[in-house]
Amino acid sequence: MNSSSHNSRRGFLKSTAALGVGYWVAGRASADEPGAAAPPAKDLNFACIGVEGKGTSDSNEAGEHGHIVAICDVDETKLAKAAERFPDAKRFYDFRELFDEMSGQFDAVTISTPDHTHAPAAVRAMKEGKAVYCQKPLTHSLYEARRMSEVARETKVVTQMGNQGTAQSGLRRSAAIVQAGALGPVHEVHVWTNRPIWPQGDARRESKPVPKNLHWNLWLGPAPRRDFAEGYAPFAWRGWWDFGTGALGDMACHTMNMPYMALDLRDPIAVTAETAGHNKDSYPKWSIIHYEFAATDKRPAVKMTWYDGGKRPPLALLEGAQIKDSGALIVGEKGKLYAPDDYGGAMQLLGNVTAPEVKIKESPGHFKEFVAAIKGGDPTVSNFADYAGPLTEMVLLGNLAVWAADAGNGPRIEWDAKNLAAKVTPAYERLVKPEYRSGYSI
Ligand SMILES: NC(=O)c1ccc[n+]([C@@H]2O[C@H](COP(=O)([O-])OP(=O)(O)OC[C@H]3O[C@@H](n4cnc5c(N)ncnc54)[C@H](O)[C@@H]3O)[C@@H](O)[C@H]2O)c1
Predict the structure, then answer these.
(1) Is 93 in the pocket of ligand 1 (CB under 6 A)?
(2) 341/324 Cα distance (integer angstroms)
(3) Can you list the residues of the chain whose pLDDT is less than 50?
């Protein structure tokens, strides 16, 4: 890059975006070059997809670090409200049109839509060279999670999933303490949540007229066509198989995150579930899911159990510590580490364990880490290729077991992670890779 480009970083950003090259987001050489000035705070242009609910804070964070040039929401009322915050942004109802019309004019995207529309929007963004901040769980299906990792690796764009606990020093410290061997060999992990806090286990809702402000067909996106009804949008879509990922998908990318980092819990070899029973339309009222992980060169084989809908691990495991609504417990031969919260940031050591001195890399903050990586700084931790994709795959495999456990206790499903397939039966293919409606692809 020549010196005049250095002097006009803003112009550079604009021109690379206009070319659709995505150099700025893919490459990170320029900030390290001699003479490169620290970039002004608002050099980046963002497009924000889904701008209420979690999208409110995601778009606000983007607005703190850049210019919001485009906003997209399928709800006209919500879009109009967001336009009051970002009056200069061009408005869209359909994210595909946003990319068609404006792809040359922004560097990064936030995606804060329901789970079933993350992948089509994110893959399109990555293929167009955009940095992507996408909410957790990264995707709705196992295939989408694998695909997101692959496309992130191919395109080399900066990515970050919205499991913000990853940036907490407490979470990183707990993971480092386990890795330092403070608990001795670990064979067992328990993780639980107070979710669902939305209806699950119900029959399909009675059809209702689509509200005037809602583009229902766009809200459905790649999911199978169904009539509008109350109890899907906003928020409660979490409880329906076609849109959400149940209590597990909603929380495990947070609550399993610390044990995942500590023990590298990727590529389970088998999964089994017990559930309240369900109709394969709405998720069950409760589930208990057993994951099995093979030994690695750093740790023995591990069994992890997930509990939701009021189910909890045996209290005796906590050795008198108070059980909280959500938590993670890592059980070692010498002692236990208990994270009594949703995000894995808090820590109690149980048994005769002393925390060793550990070194961790502090994060500037989860979204700031994303912005810094775009500007040539250190890579994000919860990037799609190496961290968030495999984490989401591991989490969502639990739902395969829940699907199979539609009448109480399900079969043990042996999993071939490399080929993304259950070993014994092709019966789960539809769940691993749901078909998209026409107009959507990844
Ligand atoms: N990281 C966290 O702590 C956290 C917290 C809450 C939610 N989330 C995640 O954020 C995402 C959104 O959850 P929510 O509860 O805010 O959902 P929501 O139902 O409130 O939807 C968010 C916004 O997206 C819009 N939207 C829906 N479909 C769209 C589409 N196809 N294109 C554009 N806009 C669309 C909605 O109208 C709404 O404004 C989910 O993936 C959820 O898991 C993360």
Answers:
(1) no
(2) 7
(3) 1-40
